[in-house]
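Obj.: predict assembly geometry.
Materials: sequence records (below).
Method: joint structure prediction, all chains together.
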Amino acid sequence: MAWFKEDKVVEKKVKIPEGTWIKCDACAEIIYRKEVERNYMVCPKCTYHFRISARERISLLFDEFEETHGELAPADPLQFVDTMPYGERVRKQQAKTGLKEALICGNGRMGDRRVKAAVLDFGFMGGSMGRVVGQKIVDSVEEAIAERLPFISVSSSGGARMQEGIYSLMQMAKTSAAVARLGKASLPFISILTDPTFGGVTASFAMLGDVIIAEPRSLVGFAGPRVIEQTIKQTLPEGFQRAEFLLEHGMIDMVVERKQLRATVAELLTLLA
Amino acid sequence: MPYFLDFEQPLSDLERQISELRRLSAGNGVDLTKEANRLDKKLEEMRKDIYSRLTPWQKTQIARHPERPYTLDYVRGMMEGFHELHGDRLFADDPAITAGFAFLDGRPLAVIGHQKGRDTRSRIRRNFGQAHPEGYRKALRVMRLAEKFGRPILTLIDTPGAFPGIGAEERGQAEAIARNLFEMAQIRVPILVIVIGEGGSGGALALGVGDRVFMMEHSVYSVISPEGCAAILWKKDKNDFSAEDYSKAASALKLTAEDLKRLGVIDAIIEEPTGGMHNAQDSDFLRIKELLINTLADLEGMSPEELCARRIERLYAIGNI
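Observations (raw structure tokens):
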């Protein structure tokens, strides 16, 4: 199947080199790190949006945030072994990111507005969705319904987590059902897509927002570009699966720069509910 | 000439021997019927033996067997008066998904399923059962019709996956799948699902949310194909992969009906005749029909609210931590 595959280039982009200076992945400009940080991790020269961790995202988006379900960590339901046992892979990712899983959820505040939020971290196994990620989304949405709050998701994911097999596929149905229940309760869901969002995450809750926002130039799609190229044996057109491409094809509502994101979401919430 | 999978080769050899014996027997007056009958019995035993010890990779191959019944064969085998409906009213008609209404035991229902072709031309026309967004949107349109007129829905799953292509992405493949998951969770009529062949990832799940989910004994259902899984795990050139790699990946993915029953993803396994559904008799389809009638009777009498609430509960319970 056509899940997005992480390739070497993608991997390189995720890790912003530590140090005083960083090199922009897009324009190759060497920039003073502090300057990029002040600019919301956006290149001041070419406006390239660096990939950021879930924690960085949360601090940019919310005035206050209290994490919930942070104790949930993946088990190994299939006893899956690839180049290493899944359990070992998870431990390595946990050590690398300081996260228990690829998603942080919790209670956020934007100005005087309370929201439920779920933020994926691409740095943890490509932000892939397994049982815990799906469960945390369902729980957050159900809490949003119980407390009558809006729900906000920020996605960055390669899709379903292969190592959890059919269970990861089922998370697509679970999270979509939860979003359906949220809609029935007339509570708004704003879905923010960031670079990259693919596969089982796009094909479930992420594309079901009442309003869907993407960051500039983010790659978003169902099948990864490499899989498509291999299938149709053609080179893909320039700009294919970029946020602007999705906007043009009617798949998302708006492309919003990172520094405008918080204000845009807050204003939309006021307009919707 | 019937199609034989690698591991079915001994069966093919024996079948050839038997028909040769029968031909000789008829041709020159020597009665070899006894011998042929003996071999017939042996053939049956051998078939049983092979089919009782199938590996996950072998099951994957049976699930993809070119003579395995497809959606329209199930419709013919179990229903009357089928009328196919076409098009998503937005862009096109997708022949990779068949949808319509028919009578099951005299009662109308909607039937929707992936449809593969039988020969090269129809296989290409039906895109090997890999749907585009318009296929999923047609499916949803017909499900909404069923809901409007209070008819139950049967979906049949048999796809390698949703098609990965430029047009599919442009027209929102991800949105189309997500929308079906979203809507199927709240459709106010019973939905029965049977995985009849390949349950390939999101493209399969897009027809797979229901009140009862069944799998045919030799069907498979997985988040990724064994080939895709192997490619990600062992990162070598496509031509360097062996059946053994795929076999390992198929086992790791836990994709058989037995696995999914054990993992609590499906409700029941539908037994296939010895030798798989490509050896099915009329009675095999009638047996499945019986199961559907009984299952619908179980769901009858439930209010739409209760039906939807239980459907979501059922989903939430899968792999719950």
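Conclusions so far: Strands of chain B lie at 80-85, 97-104, 107-114, 153-159, 191-200, 212-216, 220-222, 268-270.
To do: check interface contacts against the pulldown list.
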